[in-house]
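Example record used in the benchmark description.
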Amino acid sequence: MSHLPQDRWTLPREQWATRAGFLLAAIGSAIGLGNIWRFPAITYENGGGAFLLPYLIALLTAGIPLLILEYTVGRKYRASPPAAFRQLARPAEFIGWWQVVICFVIATYYAVILAWAVRYVGFSVGQTWGDDPDTFLFEDFLQLSDEPGTVTAFVPGVAWPLIAVWLVVLAILVFGVRRGIERANKIFIPLLVLFFLILVVRALTLEGADIGLDAFFRPDWDALTVGSVWVAAYGQIFFSLSIGFGIMITYASYLRRRADLTGSALVAGFANSSFEILAGIGVFATLGFMALQADIAVDEVATSGLGLAFIAFPQIISEMPLGTFFGVLFFSSLVVAGLSSLISIVQVVVSSVQDRTGLGRLPTVLGVGGAVGLVSVLLFSTDGGLYFLDAADHFINQYGIALAALVIVITISWILRRLPSLQENADATSAVMLGKWWRLCLAIITPLVLGWMMIDSLWTELTENYEEYPTSFLLYAGWGVAIGALVLGILLALLPRKRGNDPGVAGKSGTSEGRSR
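Model output (structure tokens):
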């Protein structure tokens, strides 16, 4: 290797201290807000217990194969997404930068929801939301403006916890992968599991819990013949495993060269799904209590997203015994789950800029992370912040993450035809060998499902405005964000680089080193 130039691309890359540290970080990234407030409602609306069958099939045919693919790309090229894709093929570098911009956008609004959860930990103590959690959330707390796109006031009650969230995230990232991210997740994940186990046990002891669980698990086998149910199962897997926007490529780039990729993907995938089912049990046992107290059917209280976390649950907390204790644990769980995910999202941006510029950890985290935090505070601490958050989240998920995943599998499997070589790389160090099923899933099943999701989503989008928002608002807050992420990704890939500052060198170095070992 002495003939290779010793530039920033050949410097030793930081590594995880242990395999357990990597797994906890990967699981922490996957387990986020969507596991708690999205999966239970998706399951209930798509066949209850019967939905678990397409969900499991989606996990085995798309989720875990994509996890293994991203782990392999990250570990083999030992670089952030832009540099890794550049080593696969120089024109593919734009995919990596596209993922970086997607992560930038998601980080700006994801942190805001954590800030809300931080405030609601305090609100739970005195049950500040009173008798009308709906009015409290939108009018008293968020001070929501009447029209989407209208910004007339700054909301200090959102701004200061949001600043606190960003200070915590940047402080952890400054310490790096091993001393920062790994150590933080060794605290966050056991704490999250402990919190949620206590919540589930408490929920199961509530009167009416059996009604909620029956609604959650009762199978509607006829739902399996409905195409939208299968699309929902694959969609949930794509959005809950942190695949498609560079996180797992970034995390895997810090793995040791002999790391077991297939085993790690299986552990991370099933751990994430197990937590989702646990969350479903806790949520629907609690909703069963609420339905019994109000003498209504479970379907009248079953909801997801912000409505579940910040309206339905506060109402339940006000009515249940030991409600304050339950509320503090629930919203603390949201904070912990969200923090581990937010750290992984920002790390993609930090790692990519660091790889591209050669800057040290501290200036990169403060510069890049500070920029993300600044945009987050200035845009989402306003009375119009919720509208921007809702539109950006919908469009960046549908036409950012999912579309990027589709482009990745088509590029690697059909255009570059790298699946056989990547499979060989993964098999060389994994306990579970990948067979033809892996290439079949990535080359055929995953592209077909993702493609159908795109068509179905676009058809809905073009026939009715999302949430009936004005078209003018969606053009810049929705479509503008999604299309802008792609365009900016392409522009970043086209930026000139100094001679000798080429990630392709790293690929040759890594390959040579791998053979020499």
